[in-house]
């Protein structure tokens, strides 16, 4: 697929149906408003706070973009796998392994070398995430084991393993189960002073461009797409399907690992339990709603991050229960998914 | 019994069925008498299944009438047919594999216990039926764990459970072992003895002789008459079924210069997808410059043969030599590299990626080499240049633009994409598997010309086809494949359609075996 001129994009890409997610998403806020007012909160006021919380100040926008960094890279990671029809639900676990890789780089001697250190952290994140994703990939290629089951279960393995490390070998002195901090030289430079927005967002944007080039312009991307579109045809024309699956998972897991490493080098500067509040799972939704295209994933990742950031501010300011904020997030999801569902399978109502 | 023995329980009169421009049934008359097994004989695409789908309410004919039990009926869906006591067992079973036998049988029926399934009384009724007709099956077994023969019994029980008296079986033996086949025939006999009437769709002559009371032969959608099985014989049925008039050898213009052997297959055996031995000690040689036609009824090892040669299926023993190289169980890419081109059986399913553009489809096999890509990146300008050339050379029409999916194109043009890609490889061996299936006359002729052109250029062409006319139209030699074995190889001049028809049905004893041996040795 070569790139199309702008007017072509406008003519062909924006179809009435691409508006549907926004309409159904809006509907979710209406229903959410009813729930909010039944909890004794003025919904208009609540939403104002939410929007302010997501975009209202430099700080708020920075916080949204920090979340976008994670969701965008993870959404891309999942998209690459989905394009090959590999259902990688293990981005969360791969993220934690990537975070571990980044942490180890940041704690080691190389972590003290200026300029080189953050690069090493990111690369180690990729390598660790990638290696961890080789488990489901190899099982699938060699033994035909379903990757969904393996990737889902390995999430628990990763989380529990990290938890063990943080209570034992990697525990920093003190009461809390944190790792020691990485060398300051390993931290990603902050883009906006007094915020947590680091160059991680640039890495995320670069990843989006990289994934676009990889999938649309390279031989490897062509193979990945071919295996995903028609595995029988790919095999028949002589593509090495097993190799493509391994490469795809390596890239997917590697990107998820980078997201983990950025959380270490750009946000927390150490490894903690719950360093990701389930980003790896939200990423599956981001990839699905973004139709696995870098542009779509970027838009959806930003929107979801705003929703997450805004609802956090809302519950802190208004004192509404956290559950209410999460309900709103869930509502948006359910509504958008239902809208998609009806777009794809338009039911025919029988008369009588 | 008041009803006389000869009054038909089903009468199809003047049935005509059209799909677009194709006439699938042309003024067909068919009657079924109570208590008989009536075979419906014909080649693939003769219109047998269409006719029975009309009786089962799946298709509505454009002309003709249907009488069931003396009454004119209008069948709008299978529900209407079942209401009248008609059931059909399809060639591919409609069972849910993770469920038990009982669950599969009672699905869709109302339960006396309202929301709860009434499995106990259903089990009793199933056991009763199974005893009555000799259909042994455990009602509590999971269907997915049953053999194909047992699954078929479940399908038949499902029909009987609904108290039907007319049963249609579509190619019921196509996936059975000989033992299962025997037990099916016994069951059918006991069913007609109990008063059921059975329509048996088949293309195997032996089965017609073994099981039927009467037989109706269909060819090209027309009925060629109904006969008492005892009044006819296999060779006259074979003649009717295949027809001698249509073979004109129009395109056959004599032999090319035959070169050296380019493909040698020696004692190759292979399993099918269900791990059953499907190619048995198969040997054949193909020379450069000839078209070798492999004739045979569907499901006798054609796919397995093509896949073993192209590296998509493992040979469990034996050797495949192409152009002097041993290519046995090599990867598809390296076999293609040694000079194979392969037009697969199913262009939509295997030959093409329909989401891809014509250009991308044309380079599916060569995208990774110069000039179509560099070390990392594809070179779309060179890919498109190549595509434009092939689109011209092969006269591919209806291309929806170089960046748009090929999906919307017609079958003939899709096949031209496959041909364009495969023939532009400059192969030494070309396998063409059902290359004209589903194509119109113009496109068919085009494909045949391309295959003959390849042979004229010294390529060895292996034409695997279910269409005997096609085989006779362009082959230099004809081999008959039956149950994974070569039944005989004939030079085209000496090939006799009756003999080939019999061999396709697995009848060997009427053929002079010495003659077969001679041509085999050439």
Write up what this structure looks like.
The complex is a heterodimer of chains A (352) and B (522). By secondary structure, chain A is an all-alpha fold. Chain A is built from 14 helices and no strands. Chain A is globular. Mean pLDDT of chain A is 90; it is low at 1-11. Chain B has 2 domains: 8-242, P-loop containing nucleotide triphosphate hydrolases (Rossmann fold); 261-354 and 425-521, Rossmann fold (3-Layer(aba) Sandwich), CATH 3.40.50.300. Helices cover 33% and strands 25% of the residues of chain B. Chain B has 18 helices and 20 strands. Chain B has helices at residues 48-55, 78-83, 101-106, 119-133, 148-161, 178-193, 205-211, 234-242, 302-310, 332-337, 347-351, 358-362, 380-393, 411-423, 441-456, 468-474, 497-504, 513-521; strands spanning 8-19, 22-33, 37-41, 63-68, 71-73, 86-89, 166-170, 197-202, 214-219, 222-228, 261-271, 277-287, 291-295, 317-322, 325-326, 340-343, 429-433, 460-464, 477-482, 485-491. In chain B, strand 14 and strand 15 form a beta hairpin. The longest helix of chain B is centred in the middle third of the chain and has 16 residues, at 178-193. At the A-B interface, helix 9 and helix 10 of A face helix 10 and helix 11 of B.
